[in-house]
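Task: fold both queries, return tokens.
Query 1:
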Amino acid sequence: MSQFCFVHAADLHLGTRFHGLAIRDEATARHFAQATRTALSRLVDRTIEAEAAFLLLAGDIYDGEWQDLSTGLDFAAQMARLARAGIPVFMLRGNHDARSVVRREITLPDNVRELSTDAPETVALEHLRVAIHGQGFADRACPDNLASRYPVPKEGWFNIGLLHTSLDGRQGHGSYAPCTPADLVARGYDYWALGHSHEFEMVRHSDPMIVYPGNLQGRSIREQGPKGAVLVMVEDGHIAGPPERLIVDSGQFLQIGVDIEGLNEMQELWDGLSDQFATVVEPGVETLHAARIVIGGEGSIHDALIAIGHEKRMAEAQAAADRRRDDIRIEKVVLRTAPVRTEEADARAANILAAGDFDLKTLLSEAATDPAVQEKITETMAQIGRHMTGGSEQFEGEIDAILAEGRATLLARAEEQ
């Protein structure tokens, strides 16, 4: 009985710069700055441990043009580790590292084979009777159905399609090398090793198996949970069971929501948050976590939450985490709360805003020069810039939250005058 295994990974995004990470702890910031490289090293570890026959990399190895040569040098060094273990690597380019985007090159070890960006090509592994078919991106924009051009399967062999594609659409992703699962099925291959979507997804479980492994390392709060690659077993020319996920990330993002409705004391909020930290991370997971806390709902502690300010909220949230775990760092605390709505409260707010017995312009001027306000505005504008060409899920609701907090702060200051 012939048996072998291979590892399928994609979307390494080496060189990612974590601009959006709001964590101020320098050690944690350094940890995430190296996270994609650490994930690659762990991927190589797992590939060698599994004694894989080969490694497939389905595009977006790099996040874009290198900021310096160390990005390419680090990748080459990791590929050299695989070369010493006798493991070949087959890779192609995606939209982030298309031929026209990443122009710098470093000589890679002989075990690495990059598939053509001009036309589909086939790599034949005679000793395994495996044929790997694929084509990389020449340009960032790829509106064509590349899969439709892939060659017919090699009869009697185990055929793999290596492709960077958005398929028929994935949330938060543009259209790249679009095709349908039916298009892939029609090629007659045994396994499709896809890249582009950053979420692990079994698009099709068999005949053929079609898999997105997701990216190796989450890069923002939009990419939560464990990240890694997949290990596929093949026996007598057929896939033996579902793929095994290989979790290799060195840091994970998570978001926790808490509601202030029904709470009478601030400490109740932090105690409840601490309880959530005890259960939000799966047992046995040993990695650093960047947590975003979203506080919502209507409640009597709304004004008190506003009054303590951003720094105090961050400190209390971190203390709540520390009571339960030592591997969680608070990335941000987002306020989406409101006071309990009553006719009396609404009338009071209306009277304050209409009274004219305070200098509204002065208050606004002070707010504009307040360091905390400036930090929030700068952070928001950075998010706008990041999402002009990408998904906007992370940004949804932020403007409303800023306005709600600003209005509450303004009312509080007005009452003091």
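Query 1 returned. Query 2:
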Amino acid sequence: DHKNGHYIIPQMADSLDLSELAKAAKKKLQALSNRLFEELAMDVYDEVDRRENDAVWLATQNHSTLVTERSAVPFLPVNPEYSATRNQGRQKLARFNAREFATLIIDILNNLELSLRSQSDLDDQHDYDSVASDEDTDQEPLRSTGATRSNRARSMDSSDLSDGAVTLQEYLELKKALATSEAKVQQLMKVNSSLSDELRRLQREIHKLQAENLQLRQPPGPMPTPPLP
């Protein structure tokens, strides 16, 4: 129930990466500015979409010869609207194995949820009876952002080993989405096959017309001499 601020974040404790390197990466994640954190979340979403598309293609590879020659894109393509540094970071997401990538996704979701909760708590505690000066008004966003990051970091430290599970509803929704994607891929392959047949037919017609055109361009032979009376 996102409207009321209720979120269910999967916590696959057995598959999470809890190494020291992962914990250090989590600290860096907590220290990101709001802008960088938003960009990272968008890039991770794109990487999830890329991996799901590749999985669908691999799952349908045995069903048709049309996809056997397809080489999977090993990382996200370069986006000309992004900086070189961001594009490099987006492509490095492909180096994460399934366990590391799942850990990163859950860390981002936890980070986002804690930010929303902290911001909500600050809004509830705000005293609207007091009239703030211009200086206080200018400093309020800075204090709010600092408190949000601080609260989020403390909460993440206490929830490093939190347990949970993927709900049945989430599993069914994901399964339905994959089935829909696979059906679309199958439909596209059928359309591609029909277009290939039509292309071959047009090529045969073109070859036939070229042969007829060449025959018409050949000079006529000598006219036969009429017999003398």
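Both queries returned. Flag for query 2: Residues 1-124+139-165 form one domain.
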